Amino acid sequence: MKIAFLGQPNAGKSTIFNGLAGYKTITANFPGQTVNYTISKVRLGDEIFEIVDLPGIYSLTALDKAEIETRNFILSGQADVVINIIDASTLSRSLELTLQIAELQVPMVICLNMIDEAKRKGLDINSEKLSKIFGVPVIETIANKGIGLDKIFTSAKEAYFNKLIPKMQSFHKDIENYISEIEKIIPANFIPKVPIRYLAIKLLEGDRELFEEMKIYNDLLNKVHKIREEIKISHGSPADTVISSERHALTMNIFEEVTKIGEPTKTLREKIDDILTNKYLGYPLLIFILFLIFFMVFEVGKIIEEPIISIFDSFIQKLPQYISPESFSFFIVKGLLEGFSGGLGVAIPYLIPFFIGLTILEDIGYLPRMAFLMDTIMHRIGLHGKSVLPFIVSYGCNVPGVMATRILESPRDRFITAALSVFVPCAARTTVIFGLVGAYIGGVATAALYFFNILIIMILGAIFTKFIPEITPGLIMEIPPLRIPTFKNMLMKTWLRLKDFMLVAWPLLVISSVILSCLEFFQLDILLNKIFSPLVTWILGLPEKSGITLIFGILRKELSMIMLFQAFDTTNLSTVMTKIQMIIFTIFIIFYIPCIGTIGALIKELGTKRTVLIIIISIFIALTLSSLARLILSLF
Amino acid sequence: MKTLVNINDRKKVKILKISGGHRIRQHLQCLGIHIGDIVTIKKSSFLGGPVLLEINGCDVALGKGIASKIEVEELE
Asked: Does A279 sit within 8 Å of B57, measured CB to CB?
């Protein structure tokens, strides 16, 4: 039996899915997190259930990719039962989707999730009455606490075996007449399994996809156009607006029938929320919270990193005792070990605390509030508040940062945000900044580099907007209530994110490390240095030997610094590079070509053409900025 | 005509008209914002920033661009 979870964004579908299937998808207190659907098999006794976590949608009107995908999935007849997951605290709005799902005439269960939040808002929902209205089971759950989840499978079975198809809710008489007129002329079995009434309503609404499919039925479409005109004249607004206000009216009727509205309990949460988004206090708090997270990341990261690195280092140093240091296999093993320790020792110690911090912010629901606060500033660079999320994530790792651009509605915003995200110094580049500028020059220079980076990103954003003007309407976003994160969810999410990194980025680290080692064995590094020396020495004014480190920085950004020690055969870089050279080197590393993992993510999200464009832009910017830095710094 | 942008904090307003394209109207409807609905302004626009509304117990943030396209009438 295949059970599909369907509901509005942020209703808790993924939380319920994870609660039933074990942790498979990432949940977030941020609307629109799930874009692709996840299928999972769950064994319960002797039965096997297939559960599908569909992306959250507000309606079935095919507004965006997620809605089309979800609609097609249900219409294809693959789902035996639909579980409509509703955030009970937003019942009045959520029922509009329920009405639309009901039109699809598939066995259904209504799941009132977050029933505790509804109570806090003063909503007393009579689920028996709701069940009677729709003729389908209604269950109450509090998914993040795991309450009521056991009822999902039993009620799904009940709905499936008793064929509990939702009762049709009728619109006003005149609209119903129009619907039946169209129903009569739709060719029988035009799309098998799809209810005629659904098609009729969609035609009345002027659904573009359906019109396209039906374009051979000229008479039918003419008739539909005529009826739509008639409605427009008699109701004074376009037919689709009329249908949606009909639905809205129906929804409000049902809502009022099943709900008693009392006084919301004013809680501490509301007071905290008020302060977090306060126009004066909000911004200092935002800076403080971000600072706290980054401080924690680097303090905790350092504690984990040092012992791991020293274990590997001592092992690599002892290696010549076991394998002859001149042999090829020595270089292979050395490369493997260095790549392995690079992932384990450099990236992961910083990623774990970063992901924990990010998860906490996400689960509390701070991220949408941050988007709200940052909206004005983001408009300065031609984006809107929601773009903040990819940027913040990018400080940990650009790969999930680029993937997070999916939450944006317009392709233009996705492109600009992704293009700018790759310039955000991720954990790997941060180790370069700290290890080089931080260690040899000092804290002020390090902080200055970060500010410089933000400034450049903003200027770039403004330039992008000049070329691709802003046409998007701007921010339209639901701000979900603040929630208390659960410890289990936090750990599982951190683990899921880490797993992504380990499966995608870590193998690349190891492979590139081995390649590097081989180059060393065949002494090709000298040749590569020679090829790149015009760029490295003439334009950037860096020592010729640092050339190869820049090439390998594409594979792993932090590798470029680790390799500097190797290339110069020293433990103190200040003996081989001047402070100015270090700054130029670091600026170049921050801005030039995104790492292999990020390029992969860019291709997946934006396509090859745009990725190539971003790479070219990044090379241009890195060269311009570092040669400018060389020019300016040499004046002092 | 007053729009959502020039209403002060904690005021209740009734939505009279939503200008702008069909898509915007649809998007707003999805978030439970319809013509004739009564909404409370939780945070008014500050320095060109977004407006925070409460509608049927949900909070929705609207950028200044959209907020300026929604005509409203202040209640009492």
From this structure: no
Interface of B with A in 8-67 (CB under 8 A): 20, 22-32, 34, 43, 46-50, 52, 56-66
Find the CATH number of the domain harbouring B27: 2.30.30.90
Hey, what's the torsion of the CAs at A73, A77, A79, A85, to 10 degrees? 60
Q: Flag whether A480 is in a domain.
A: no
Q: CA A590 to CA A611: how far, in whole Å?
A: 17
Q: What separation in angstroms does the CA of A387 have from each of A204, A410, B69? A: 36, 11, 22
φ, ψ of residue A79 in degrees (nearest 5): -90, 130
pLDDT in tens, A229-238: 999 999 888 8
A240-292 residue pLDDT tens: 888 888 998 999 999 999 999 888 777 788 889 889 988 889 999 999 998 88
Quick one: pLDDT at residue A596?
A: 81
Q: Which amino acid is at A22?
A: G
- Is A274 inside any structural domain? no
Residue B38 contacts residue B14 (beta carbons within 8 Å): yes
Residues A206 and A244 in one domain: yes
Q: Name which of B30, B60, B63 is nearest A474 (Cβ-Cβ).
A: B63
Q: Do B63 and A384 touch (CB under 8 A)?
A: yes
- A260: which 2 tokens? 């008693």
Q: Specify if A292 maps to a domain.
A: yes
With beta carbons under 8 A apart, name residues in chain B contacting A480. Answer: 59
A314 burial class (0-12, 13-18, 19+ CB within 10 angstroms)? Answer: exposed
User: Is the domain of A211 the same as that of A299?
Assistant: no
Alpha helix segments (H runs only) across B2-63 = 22-30
